[in-house]
Write a structure and sequence with these properties.
200 residues; alpha/beta; 36% helix; 7 helices; six-stranded mixed β-sheet
Length: 200
Amino acid sequence: MKCIMVRHAETKANADKKIYGWTESEYSLLGEKQVEKLVEYLVLQNIDKIYASPLRRALTIAERVGKEKGIHIIKDDRLKEMNFGILEDMTYKEAKAKYKDHYDSFMKDFENYVIPNGESFAQVHIRAKAFIDSIEETDECLLMVAHGGVVRSLMLHLLDLNFKDTWHFEVPPATIIEIDYDKGFGKLKQFIPIGDQVKL
């Protein structure tokens, strides 16, 4: 099957460099332009099914593409961004000042540290893997609109990479990643940082 994974466009929280996952945030002005570019590209693809995080910054893009192509959107909580718990909606400076011990533990062991009222990246990876494993392999093209952490996790699973490989690639807002996946073997076909093509 062909997997097209999309990280949502830039939000105001991204622009303000906030730690946020389950918190909703509107697109920035740049993000609004990135959405247009993303939709413009995606509607030209031969997509059969569309999966999306229920968070608005991802769902909006999926709905725009789905409307153009007449495809129903399948919302899945497993595609939600990492829950940053008590650190949600804070800048890194604010988080370090208010919750220094938790912030330092999170930065030291991003993979395993469970943020109070939140989760760890390892837990995100478990649910992202479960999402992929729940999809029956077909010859179809599947669009998945999600978030930075989840897209990274999906890539790790589909390309059979280790956690330590997570930071070997950047996934900026409005990035499209295409992977062909057959019988447990994934091959990276395209990595398109569409957001980098958009200027205010």
